[in-house]
Design goal:
heterodimer; A: 420 residues; alpha+beta; two-stranded antiparallel sheet; rod-shaped; B: 221 residues; alpha/beta; Rossmann fold; 5-stranded parallel β-sheet; 4-stranded antiparallel β-sheet; 9 strands; globular; binds adenosine-5'-triphosphate; binds magnesium ion
């Protein structure tokens, strides 16, 4: 006859007592496991929602990017090919051109058949003093065509400049009273004004375009140019590097610059879209977190309350049990049971109650928690949660029964044994 | 050998003290069956509880084979009791959810050692309980209950058996059966201290001690 057997027999005999304690432990463990499961489910669901949102955003961004690429492709973009030793700062500051490349470069580039590059316009330009009129002008020699790309962003229009003809910028034409068909003298040569440009509000307004070879003659730079403009190139913005490489392989010692604001526009649009997406995502994260906080607050009140109520109930159940078993305790003492034997008698029972309650509570709580898990497949057994629930139930049961068990062990048997 | 040396027990009641047990000297030798006879309220049960170390006397000593019971700690006493003293009560105090055999073996649980199986079955057979081994106490007659309680007390062959009014609930035949077992036990070297109010029962012991009527003793303090 072992204490263990004594405990089992007693439990079987007084089922109600054990079951009422067991129910309390089970419920407390269920509340714990259930609320933890719901929190975990919430976290997983949040993860999923965010992952989906991110995926959507990525897809939207990709579509956006694609749209832009198509628009840009149709638009084309413009490249400026400059001598490698041309200082860009000087170039931007006042068109001070100080470096040159041979005009054969343009032909070479054209013959290289780089598919992305079209409309090559070699040019030679220099800021000079117009001796006949005492005016500072930008003299630009082009081969056959003058780009007027700012008039229509979508379709740059090319104006041809024939030999012996000149295209005059708006400011010059206005102040000098020049008209199409007038004759002008430029460095001793006579040109017919082919066209006066509309006002552009840029250095173009003080520029004069003439044929390249004539400009080379005037400026004393035969066979030389200082820029090649490539118009309506067909490629995506991030392929600029490729274009650069292609150009460099054909023309050593040049630099390639992308001209115009289209690149910026595209980048900005992309930035704005991704920022919006990020904000939407952050909003969602905030919502989910708030919901989680509320859930957590709720369960952080409910779970301890359930544990406390359960502990009180279990304590009461054990106290009742001890009172009921005073005679039994008395006789066991008379038979030579020590304090620890009596303690074991009750604590073993509590241990069983805790184990069974922890197990049942985990099953119950997790089942309830997972009842509405929907598409999220959580495995029923979460070892860490199980351990937490199980240990909590056991500790609760032992702690709650400790005082009644101790009280039982301290009972003086004489009193009970003399009764009746 | 059990020795009660000037053992006294009183209880406070208001301004007075109730004498539960008047001073008593008592010796029970090994192999001796001693009866203590006294009227109701004379302190028979009190005497027995003190003799078994379950109740502390106000003064006096209880020695079992030279060991002073009331000088021991609770747990020392428990261990000592489980090896040397057996108790039987008028109300049997059987554990209701255990079978007869399990009740007989209950001292194993108290002792923390399970080596009484064979002896338990032997005692059950000896006390005519073979056919009742699986029964619970509720299913037994009074005589069977008392025999079960007796078998339980004798499981580990205590040096002394303390029996409190154990024939009180039994008819003449059953009382004689139980007394027979007690006499047999002393023959095998054990000692028995039986307390009873029944002169006829007491007279079957080797020796009878008398407790005075408490009403003659009560004096204002
Ligand atoms: N805890 C107690 N408090 C007060 N008085 C007590 C207590 N225990 C016993 N008494 C008193 O001590 C006296 C002896 O009691 P005890 O139970 O030993 O008598 P008894 O001889 O066994 O009587 P009975 O034959 O009726 O069983 C009684 O008068 C009883 O009232
Ligand atoms: Mg009595």
């Amino acid at each position: 006859m072992s204490v263990w057997r004594l405990v089992i027999k007693e439990i079987v005999r007084r089922k109600t007592n054990f079951v009422s304690g067991l129910v309390a432990v089970t419920l407390a463990a269920a509340v714990l496991a259930g609320s933890m499961t719901i929190l975990r489910l919430h976290d997983l669901r949040t993860q999923r929602i965010l992952a989906r949102k991110e995926q959507e955003t990525r897809q939207r961004m990709a579509v956006l990017e694609d749209d832009y690429r198509k628009i840009m492709k149709n638009l084309g973009f413009n490249l400026l090919i400059l001598p490698g030793n041309q200082k860009l700062s000087d170039f931007y500051a006042d068109d001070a051109v100080s470096a040159y490349i041979p005009d054969t470069y343009a032909t070479r580039l054209a013959e290289a058949k780089i598919v992305t590059i079209r409309h090559l316009l070699p040019s030679l330009q220099e800021k000079v003093l117009w001796p006949e009129r005492k005016r500072t002008i930008i003299l630009i020699g082009t081969r056959g065509e003058v780009p007027s790309m700012f008039r229509d962003a979508r379709e740059p229009i090319l104006v041809a400049v024939k030999k012996g003809h000149a295209v005059v910028g708006h400011e010059l034409a206005e102040s000098l009273g020049l008209r199409a068909g007038d004759r002008i003298t430029l460095f001793g040569r006579t040109f017919t004004v082919g066209q006066c440009n509309e006002e552009r509000g840029s250095k173009d307004d003080i520029s004069i375009w003439i044929d390249l070879s004539e400009a080379q003659g005037i400026l004393g730079k035969p066979g030389r140019i200082n820029a090649i403009l490539a118009l309506k190139c067909h490629c995506a913005g991030n392929e600029l590097a490729n274009v650069r490489r292609d150009v460099a392989s054909v023309l050593p010692g040049v630099q390639v610059i992308e001209q115009g604001s289209k690149v910026l526009t595209r980048a900005e649009a992309r930035d704005r879209a991704s920022k919006e997406a990020a904000e939407a995502l952050a909003g969602e994260v905030g919502n989910r977190r708030q919901l989680r906080d509320e859930l957590e607050r709720f369960s952080s009140i409910l779970a301890p309350l359930a544990l406390l109520a359960s502990a009180l109930w279990v304590g009461l159940v054990f106290y009742t049990n001890v009172r009921e078993r005073r005679g039994e305790i008395g006789i066991l003492r008379a038979l030579g049971a020590r304090t620890r034997t009596i303690l074991r008698l009750f604590l073993t029972k509590a241990l069983l109650m805790g184990c069974a309650g922890g197990l049942a509570g985990y099953v119950l709580g997790t089942s309830i928690g997972l009842a509405r898990q929907g598409e999220i497949g959580i495995s029923f057994l979460d070892p860490r949660l199980f351990l937490l629930t199980f240990c909590t139930a056991v500790v609760l049961s032992l702690a709650a029964s400790w005082a009644p068990a101790y009280y039982a062990a301290q009972q003086e048997p004489a009193e009970v044994l003399r009764e009746e | 050998m059990l020795v009660l040396d000037r053992v006294v027990k009183t209880y406070p009641k208001g301004s007075r003290r109730i004498t539960a047990l008047a001073p008593i000297d008592l010796t029970v030798r090994a192999g001796e069956f001693v009866a203590v006879e006294g009227p109701s309220g004379s302190g028979k049960t009190t005497c027995l509880l003190i003799a078994g170390g379950l109740l502390d006397p106000d003064s006096g000593k209880v020695l079992l084979d030279g060991h002073d019971l009331h000088a021991m700690t609770r747990n020392q006493l428990a261990a000592f009791r489980s090896q040397n003293i057996g108790f039987v009560f008028q109300q049997y105090h059987l554990i209701p959810y255990l079978s007869v055999l399990e009740n007989i073996l209950a001292p194993e649980a108290a002792r923390g050692r399970a080596n009484g199986q064979a002896r338990g079955r032997e005692l059950a057979g000896q006390f005519g309980l073979d056919h009742r081994l699986d029964h619970t106490p509720a299913e037994l007659s009074c005589g069977e209950k008392q025999r079960t309680a007796l078998a339980r007390a004798l499981l580990f062959r205590p040096k002394i058996l303390l029996a409190d009014e154990i024939t009180g609930n039994l008819d003449h035949v059953n009382a004689q059966i139980v007394l027979g077992y007690l006499r047999e036990y002393v023959k095998t070297g054990g000692s028995v201290l039986l307390v009873t109010h029944d002169r006829e029962i007491a007279s079957q012991a080797d020796r009878v001690e008398y407790l005075p009527d408490p009403r003659e003793l009560e004096t204002p303090r």
